[in-house]
Amino acid sequence: MKGERAMRKITAVLMALALALSLFACGGEPVQDETPGSDIQQGTVILPKPQENDESGDSQNGEYPSAQDPLPQKPGDTKKPEEPDKAEDGKNPGKNEDNAQTPAEDPKQEENKNNNNGDNSTIPSDTKVPSGEYRAVWISYLELGGMLTGKTAGQFRSNIGAAYDNVKNLGCNTVIVHVRPFGDALYDSDYFPSSYLITGTEGDNLPFDPLKIMVEEAHNRGLTFEAWLNPYRVRARTGKALCSDNPAQKYINSGSDAVYQTANGGIFYNPGSREAIDLIVNGVREIVRNYDVDAIHFDDYFYATTDSSIDSALYAANGGGKSLAAWRRQNVNTMVREVYAAVKAEKQSVRFGISPQGNTKANYDTLYADVATWLGNAGYVDYICPQIYYGFNNATCPYSSVLKEFNGMIKVSGIDLYVGLAAYKIGNEDTYAGTSGKYEWQQNSDLLSRMVTEARGASHYKGYCLYSYSSVIMPASGVKAQVQAELTALSKIL
After folding, report:
1. Does residue 358 register a pLDDT over 50?
2. Is residue 93 domain-resident?
3. Residues 6+ apart with CB under 8 A from 274
4. What is the average pLDDT across 361-376?
5. Which of 46, 66, 76, 118 gives 20 to 30 Å between its CA and that of 236?
6. Domain that holds residue 275
7. Residue 177 phi, psi (nearest 5)
8. Is the pLDDT score of 32 beyond 60?
9. Alpha carbon 302 to chain centroid distance?
10. At what angle do helices 447-455 and 399-409 cross, to 10 degrees?
11. Backbone angles phi and psi of 267, in degrees to 5
12. Residue 385 — pLDDT band, cuts 50, 70, 90?
């Protein structure tokens, strides 16, 4: 670990009402859990052979493995699958649970059948497959846990390779894999402790380098590898203790304002702290310098609270006459700009992108993520991948409108638009989508294909990303058939 720094401890109070409301507005995100889910197994996907970007040959015939099914045992692997965690990573099991509004009175399902199926589209459809279309899958730390924790290097290499084979069978060409989910490292780091996901204990010596293996196995299969980091999050809530050499623990011990704590025990690096910014930037720089990653990918965590007490002293000293909200947005912008510069200084070819939640108002007002600035100026991002986790009929954030909004924000050349799609919702009731959209994911089996088709008509569109791996490879038994139907429909437009 590099250096110890000292300042003062801040203990945050209750989350502000505005944030609480935003979490249940369209695109809001619940607090995330930190418990890894079930082991990941190789699954065979019943799909036609992808027409491009697939070098693996014909897909295999078989059935999806479910999260409840026993996993094939590999040599030396005696761990039994655990019940998947249903509240992580924003996620039930989605990457960003998008509760659009207070649920309306449930209508009869018959009254919602044959809904408008996206007739509210505002971007013309273009069914032509873009050349080099980006097709990605998010693989979260929950999914990595079963593949990695307590495994040998050989076992992990086999497990992650099997997962990548499944991704290729979907016709995808890119994996976005968690490498720093909680202020830790799934790699050899000078700045962050080793993740508990490796041995079960944070800060243990590395028995092998998971990131090196993950990159190698991806490239061996012709897949692009993106390193997924949560830059500010250390803990989402009270949970696993920090190891003694975790920089966040050192900041807490010394009273530094480089971290703040939320009322539920969450710990986050403070975007207003110069120390925190330097730590984040240096952490990104070492990944790009030491590993053959193709991109750095940031999730949607920025400020975890609107509570003014978490940075009152920093604001008083550095606010410069700006409102608290404007100052906070400036802090995040500074971090984003400096990360971009660090990536390009190390390797010009490595890309940097961010996956904000789909609700642009919540991004701006409660997370202090000024996405329009990133997309309206050079030097911030190479791509944006909004989590457009809404159906066409979502009452407050319909897919078509959100797609148009993000596409319209891009004002400079060289920034690509990828759309994040909620594969985790397939076959499930969309509780907070309002009366019009509540049953949309249950009553349709071609939403993903229609979403991609419509996105292809957006001027800056270059690809899509599915959340998540387990949702398409290990769906719950009750939605297997519908997931298969969605993927078959998607394969027909690839």
Report:
1. yes
2. yes
3. none
4. 97
5. 66
6. 17-302+332-491
7. -120, 135
8. no
9. 13
10. 30
11. -125, 130
12. very high
Q: pTM (2 decimals)? A: 0.80
Rounded distance, CA 57 to CA 202, Å?
Answer: 40
**Structural domain contains residue 322:** no
The one-letter amino acid code at 91 reads K
Residue 266 tokens read as 């969450």
Structure tokens at 135: 């097709």
State how many domains the chain has: 1
Q: Which residues pair with 352 in a beta bridge?
A: 296
What stretch of H or E contains 244? Answer: none
Read off the CATH number of the domain in which 387 is found: 3.20.20.80
- How far is it, in rounded angstroms, from Cα 171 to Cα 374? 30
Cα four-point dihedral sign 270, 276, 281, 287: negative
Tracing tokens 């700009």 back to the chain, one arrives at 337
Instruction: With CA atoms as reference, report the closest residue to 91 among 484, 477, 440, 423.
Output: 423
Q: Backbone dihedral region of 401: left (phi > 0), alpha (psi from -120 to 50 degrees) or beta? A: alpha
Please state, in angstroms and as integers, the Cα–Cα distance from residue 345 to each residue in 277, 283, 290, 331, 485, following that order: 17, 14, 13, 21, 45
Tokens of 475: 């769906």
Give the tokens for residue 119: 């007739």
Spatial CA neighbour of 221 closest among 144, 179, 153, 167 = 167
In eight-state DSSP terms, residue 309 is G
Residue 415 pLDDT level (bands cut at 50, 70, 90): very high
**Number of neighbours of residue 78 by Cβ within 10 angstroms:** 7
DSSP class of 237: S
